[in-house]
Every structure is written in structure tokens, then in C-alpha cells.
Amino acid sequence: MNVYTPILVLGAIAAGFAVVSVGIALVIGPRRFNRAKLEAYECGIEPARQPMGAARFPVKFYLTAMLFIVFDIEIVFLYPWAVSFGQLGMFALVEMLLFMATVFVAYAYVWRRGGLEWD
């Protein structure tokens, strides 16, 4: 357990920072709507025309987010593999090529379906 203590402390600090940041924003943040808050923001959806519960995000936003997560996970696996590549041998090379091929098949699928094209 002593080995994991720094990791647990770091996790507790991160969670505490997140909770305190959100709490402070709720307490001291502005609550009045103005013209700037009612204008279209990054995704282009105009909040003034849609009721609060009826707004639906286009599927392309979720596809982009999932693609980002998939490539982040690929990088998380790729770094340790690259560091210890010398000790792993040919089997690890073949396994990583299969893993990367799987990721790029998913990327090609999203690209072919038009998930990366914005209107």
C-alpha cells in the first residue's frame, strides 16, 4: 500500500481541486444572461432558439470526441511500447502493428461515413 500512497494523494488533490473550482464558480460566477451569452458559441448552435431540455447535439460532435479518445488511448499504449521496444522483440512489433491497424480501420470508417466533414 505504501507504493500507491503518492498516487492516491495526487488523485485526492486533483479531485479536491476540481470540486473546489466548480464550487467557487457557482458561488462567485455571474448568473445574469446578456447578449454575449445568447449568441452562438463554438459548435454553432444558437441557445436562444432552443429550449433548455430540447437541444440536441449533432452526432458528428460525438464522433469527433470518440475519435479523439481513441487516438489518445492509442498514444497511451504507444509510448510505453516505444520506450521498451528493444527488449520486446518481434512479437511486440506485430502486436502493435495489429493494434494500429485496428485503430486506423476505425478512423477510415469514420472518414468514409463523412464524420469528419462539417457543413
From TrEMBL:
UniProt protein name: NADH-quinone oxidoreductase subunit A
Source species of the chain: Mycolicibacterium tokaiense
Enzyme Commission no: 7.1.1.-
Swiss-Prot/TrEMBL catalytic activity: a quinone + NADH + 5 H(+)(in) = a quinol + NAD(+) + 4 H(+)(out)
Main location: membrane
Family: Belongs to the complex I subunit 3 family.
Family annotation (HAMAP family): NDH1_NuoA
Keyword field: Cell membrane, Membrane, NAD, Oxidoreductase, Quinone, Translocase, Transmembrane, Transmembrane helix, Transport, Ubiquinone
Molecular functions (GO terms): NADH dehydrogenase (quinone) (non-electrogenic) activity; NADH dehydrogenase (ubiquinone) activity; quinone binding
Class in the EC hierarchy, top level: translocase
